[in-house]
Amino acid sequence: MRPLELPQPPAWMTGALCAQTDPEEFYPEKGGSTAAAKRICQACDVRVVCLAYALDRGERHGIWGGVSERDRRAMTAEQRRNHPNSRPNTRAGQPADPLVDAEIMRLTHAGHSARAIATELGITHRRVQRARARNRPAQEVAA
Ligand code: SF4
């Protein structure tokens, strides 16, 4: 019998500063302070992709990218208000997230393949392709 294969964490998590600190700071009790975790996030090199990852997956708990669950809910609600017709693109039913798209396009312009980007961000290859299609420059579309 083959051993159970667990999903690999996305590559960016190797740069997570929180992995070197007390994880409890990032999951405070209700009403507890989030200040210490947010301070750590401000110094973290992977903050943008971390937040994009959490928004894309609809993470409900903890501090991700320096943003609390309450603030992420507000960001998602604002996104829905501003783009009411955007199609959900994840299992969590979140609308397309501009932060995730921006990170996908940044990595695309840096020459990374769609598969490498998917692995790096912990998202599907198809999600990368959709973001690329959404963000294709107008002249490329017309050509
Ligand atoms: S931004 Fe914050 S939560 Fe995200 S990996 Fe860095 S330290 Fe951890």
DSSP, total strands = 0
Which ligands, by name, code or SMILES, are bound?
Answer: iron/sulfur cluster
Can you give the mean pLDDT? 82
Please report the distance between the alpha carbons of the first and last residues. Answer: 53 Å
Work out the count of structural domains. Answer: 1
User: What is the element string, with H for helices and E for strands?
Assistant: HHHHHHH
**Unreliable stretches:** 89-93
Describe the structure using short key phrases:
143 residues; 7 helices; 48% helix; binds iron/sulfur cluster
Describe this structure in words.
There is one protein chain. This protein is mainly alpha-helical and 143 residues long. The protein has one domain. Helices cover 48% and strands 0% of the residues. Helix 2 packs across helix 4 (98-109) and helix 5 (114-121) crosses helix 6. It is globular and about 45 Å long. The termini are far apart. 22% of the residues are buried. The model is unreliable at 89-93 (pLDDT under 50). Iron/sulfur cluster binds at residues 16-18, 26, 40-41, 44, 46-47, 50, 63-66. Its main location: cytoplasm. InterPro entries: 4FE4S_WBL, Whib. Residues 17-74 form the 4Fe-4S Wbl-type domain. It holds the Pfam family Whib. Its cofactor is [4Fe-4S] cluster.
